[in-house]
Amino acid sequence: MSHADLRPSAASAALNPSRAFPIVAAFLFGVVIIGGVGFTQMAVAHNAAHDHRHSIGFPCH
Amino acid sequence: MNLFRTIVLVAALVGLGSGLVLTIVQHFSVQPLIVQAEVFESQRTEAEAPKPHDHEAAGEHDHLAAAKADLAAQEAHEAAHAHDADAWEPADGVERFGWTVVANVLSAVGFALLLVSASELKGGLTSWREGLLWGLAGFAAFTLAPSVGLPPEAPGVTGAALEARQIWWIGTVAATALGLALIAFGRSPVLAILAVALIAAPHVIGAPHAAEAPAIPRKLEHDFVVAVIVTGFVFWAALGALAGALRPRFGGA
């Protein structure tokens, strides 16, 4: 069985509200993680993630 | 398995893998430049730091006023740089490297959550090649676009106010991602024109710029920008391809 069979119509499946909620929830989860690691101005968070922030190109100092 | 768990599980695996790729590439590309730049950064910090007041010049009679002036200068200096000298920071070596790995992997999980959930709106990734294309879009939105107005800053390169730069950065990423989605999935030429305008808009508005000259040599500043952008390219390519390769293994959800 190919996986394509499970999604006969990707576009219509995407618009289904029962899919929309988990997708939006997972997206917001990602936003929170990136905000915490890359944008928190707390000194401890800044110092721990310092090299990472510079390497990703986040505004750092 | 429900869709939320599928996305989170795929993103966790993708984030772990691509975060480690990022760590390896960064360790040999960006990290040596950070260390070099920090030498210049700390030299400037020392040069700007308030000197203990001069007894000869001030005269011995006005100690209290001189001490107050020292304190005020010290506070102004700290406020200007937003660095809390007393705050914990990892010791150089294994500890510093360890925290960088943690931050790399966490951030990669965050980026993977965005990429995988966004691609679910189109029914989910079906192959590594499709994932790679999504990864390239991620590179364009998260690395290239903000770097046009705000080139990645090495330590010692002082930017404009941090909040202003963060807001511009986030706005540029959002506008570019939305614009690319409209170009890829929009059905009409009007949407494509709108998309191009959306991607150009942050650069027309312009990024906040610093008045202060960088403390590091021009070549180092340049090499750092190149290293960050190329590292970002490899990272996003790995993230996207890995997401595309793993997602089909978790069924249609």
From TrEMBL, chain A:
Ranges that cross the membrane: 20-44
InterPro entries reported for this sequence: CbtB_put
Keywords: Membrane, Transmembrane, Transmembrane helix
Gene source species: Methylopila jiangsuensis
Tagged with keyword Transmembrane helix: yes
Domain of life the protein comes from: Bacteria
The protein's name in its UniProt record: Cobalt transporter subunit CbtB
From TrEMBL, chain B:
Pfam families on file: CbtA
Coiled-coil residues: none
The protein, known as: Cobalt transporter subunit CbtA
Entry keyword Lyase: no
Chain ranges passing through the membrane: 97-119, 131-147, 167-185, 190-211, 223-246
Alphabetically ordered keywords of this record: Membrane, Transmembrane, Transmembrane helix
Keyword Transmembrane: yes
Stored InterPro entries: CbtA_put
Organism: Methylopila jiangsuensis
Top-level taxonomy: Bacteria, Pseudomonadati, Pseudomonadota, Alphaproteobacteria, Hyphomicrobiales
